Amino acid sequence: MNRWLDMLLAQYNYLLRDRNESYEQVKSPKLGNYCDLKTHGEACPLSCSVNKSSSIGYPWKKSQKNPRRSAYEVQSSSLPSLKKQRPWYKAINSTVLQQMLRQLDVAFSKFFKGEAKYPRPKRRSRFRSLKYAPGQVKLDGNRIYLPGIGWMRFHNSRPIPDGFTMKSVTVRRQSRGWFVSIQIEDKSVPVPPVKTKHEIRPDRVKGCDLGIRKLLSISDGEIVQNPANSKKSKRQTRRLRLRQRAASRKKKGSNNRKKAFSKVASLHERVTNKRSAYHWETAKNLSNGADALVFEDLNIKGMKSRCKPKPKDLGGYDRNGQSAKKGLNRVISDAAWGELVKKVEVVAAKSGIPVIKINPKHTSQRCPKCHHTSADNRKGEKFVCTECGYHDDADINGAVNIKMRGLKKLGINPTQLPSVRRKVTPMDITAV
Q1: Is 395 among the catalytic positions?
Q2: Would 219 disulfide with which of 23, 39, 162, 399, CB 3.0-4.6 Å?
């Protein structure tokens, strides 16, 4: 399986480069324009690509309406010649090679839809999985059959329930070994429709404010703690720092260095799995008893971007706070807000619960009672309106404002203002 991944990685990068060069050749031919000897005019180059997406494979098919093949079909037609030119590729199952082409094609389709960046060549550390098509993998208790590899034992952590059929199967290499992910489907279970605004009750809409100390503050007064702030998590962070320091001191290229970094990777994986399990549990609890969920549309990438440099007139740079911001970026990454919202969307879709995202501007500074907005309203974790005196926990107040904006986006008028849920010592408004 390691050998398969190496060959699939090489072919993936090769076909990616072919797509890039084919497009550049059509856009601006590298060989230039040749002169026609009879008319002394410019003609097309001797070597050009018929398909702007690929020059490897046969670009035509028998269909009269659309005789031109897509980029995936063109590159897929080159697989038989690949196995003749490089016989070692015969060891890889043909479906696995086709799924690798699908992976490349999906990467380009996501780019053209604006969902991802332009595909770039992958490294070994970023190419760790191979995929099988439906109906090829077999299961027999704690044994699994992978075409081209054979039968092998595995730990069946979750048996497939009755009524479900296997679809695609992904074999993934991780630091602690090889894992199999099986996608299952039950066509008899209908997909619930998304609730409309007439089916949504305002008192069952939850506004959710993402944070660092508190992972999630909900408009009904509930608070979800961030596990990264626990003592156990801090011990793991210290252990990880010690292991990374020990691994970096090992001699480069030595077996001891590989063993040390494998321990670091194993600890990273353990932390990731625990965080993911906590997110799934939070998503399930959040969806229970809710008709709609409202989140802030945060630009997490922009929040973690580097501070702009401050050049001096006489040369050099002033301090821009990047060293202090490094710690903030780390805790934002540990909280993994984006992954949490994605998991909430998956769990909510099973019950037809809509997940709405609103503009987060001034949600933590706005009074939900008199709508007065000022930076003086918030002092740390306290919110006290300087106009009407309404006070509440700052994060809960932000969640209430998020809920109000979500209701407005849905076209629903809120019935009543939520009452104060947290004991907050009011600030001296006259002094402010």
Answers
A1: yes
A2: 399
